[in-house]
Design brief:
- This protein has 152 residues and is mainly alpha-helical.
- It folds into two domains: 75 residues, no CATH class; 62 residues.
- Helix content is 84%, strand content 0%.
- The protein is elongated.
């Protein structure tokens, strides 16, 4: 197990932390870029296999994937990388928003019946639902949902 890690670090010339960053980037890119990475990965695998035939194929596969991600990342402009990061943040916020909406009856109950502040509701979600959401997000959603209900 440890030897595989050493081989992977030696072949990629990257620490485990850097390798994990590359893999997270792979998860964030669009399907076209993923396919491009996999195309390069296949080529790199055969090149690595011919040079380092003694290394396990699964290690070579992982190393070639990381190296392919690195190559494609270098070809992407800074703007494209920032767009990918922005999209990932939006996806995270949408997931949180969906979780809050699923628990909206609790928000209403805590706000109306228990007279809790939005800060306290935020702390409640963290403690009892393991959902780390800012009070301002809950407040914005409250205004959006509850104030629209009063107008309609």
């Amino acid at each position: 197990m440890k030897q595989n890690q050493i081989n992977c670090e030696k072949l990629t010339k990257m620490t485990i932390k850097m390798q994990n960053q590359k893999l997270r980037l792979f998860a964030k890119v669009d399907i076209t870029t993923k396919l491009k990475i996999l195309y390069y990965q296949k080529q790199l695998f055969y090149k690595l296999n011919s040079i380092h035939g003694e290394v396990d194929n699964s290690v070579l596969t992982l190393c070639s994937l990381i190296l392919a991600i690195n190559d494609v990342e270098k070809s992407l402009s800074t703007t494209n990388l920032n767009v990918l990061k922005f999209r990932a943040e939006n996806i995270k916020s949408n997931v949180k928003r969906e979780k809050i909406l699923a628990l909206w009856s609790i928000v209403r109950s805590l706000k109306i019946e228990q007279k809790m502040s939005f800060r306290d509701i935020s702390k409640y979600f963290l403690k009892y639902h393991r959902l780390n959401v800012s009070y301002s997000t809950i407040y914005e959603m409250w205004n959006e949902i509850e104030n629209n209900n009063k107008k309609g």
